[in-house]
Amino acid sequence: MSRDQQNKKEKMDMKRIPVIFFIGVSGSGKDTQADFLIDNYGFIKISSGNILREIKKEAEGNPDNYEAGVIKRILDDGKFVPTLTIASRWYHILIDLIHKMKFSHGPKDKIKGIIFSSSPRKLAEALLLEDFFNTWPEASVFETRPIFIDVSEKEALRRLQNRLVCASCKKNFMITNKEDKPVKCDSCGGVLEVRHDDTEENIKSRFREFKEFLIPVIDFYGKNNKLATIKGEQSVEGVYKDIIGVLSLDK
């Protein structure tokens, strides 16, 4: 067997690393499912929401930061930021991860999977991500896996109206009993609060933008036979079980 043939065989035999795109309307449970995969499989999470919230924090701490100030204004209005704004952050995170994987050999640098929580949010973002993973030389070890968690607007609204978030680690909590609602995070002990952007006006804006921007993303992956659809109104455990099945992960 020639060297080229050997390299091809090794590449085919190697199990590709999943890059999961959780897609769904706000309140569909994307972050909850991402946290399960992180806790149980050690996946790395790239959260666009957390990235943008950090930029907002910069704006509040430094009013002279023009970019952060504009992004804060966009987010406060419940709108999507320009594609390049978030894509440039993804690029640097991905390059750093691939660099560590290529040049470091410790177990902590081995990537088991990457999760993009709540992304891509636009067709342009999906195309940019697919282009990166298809053309960056060392990215050939990855395989993009878009997963649509299907939840109705009615159910999503109910969940968002009963959602709390940890002020420290940003973990989400669902209130099932308002008379006995938790006050502290069970992960870090942080204070639980209502997300400031979970106003009725912002929630309705997110639903409108889902129809305008995310339906084309779902259609794109569906036409390319890459999309997995999960029934999101079953139990949290049921959703997780279906995701594990779709990804063919060891139990």
Architecture overview:
This protein is an alpha/beta fold and 251 residues long. The protein has a single domain, classed as Rossmann fold, CATH 3.40.50.300. Helix content is 50%, strand content 15%. The chain is built from 9 helices and 8 strands. It has helices at 3-13, 30-41, 48-61, 66-76, 83-103, 123-135, 153-160, 200-223, 236-247; strands spanning 17-23, 44-47, 114-117, 142-150, 163-166, 172-174, 192-193, 228-231. It has a 5-stranded parallel β-sheet, sandwiched between helices. Strand 5 and strand 6 form a beta hairpin. It is globular, with a radius of gyration of 19 Å. Mean pLDDT is 86; it is low at 5-13. Keywords: ATP-binding, Cytoplasm, Kinase, Metal-binding, Nucleotide biosynthesis, Nucleotide-binding, Transferase, Zinc. This is Adenylate kinase.
Please give a quick description of this structure.
This protein has helices at residues 3-13, 30-41, 48-61, 66-76, 83-103, 123-135, 153-160, 200-223, 236-247, and strands at residues 17-23, 44-47, 114-117, 142-150, 163-166, 172-174, 192-193, 228-231.
- Alpha-carbon distance between the two ends: 36 Å
Q: Do you know the CATH architecture?
A: 3-Layer(aba) Sandwich
CATH secondary-structure class: Alpha Beta
Number of domains: 1
Which sequence of strands runs across the widest sheet? 2-3-1-4-8
Averaged pLDDT: 86
CATH superfamily name? Answer: P-loop containing nucleotide triphosphate hydrolases
Strand content: 5-15%
Series of H and E elements:
HEHEHHHEHEHEEEHEH
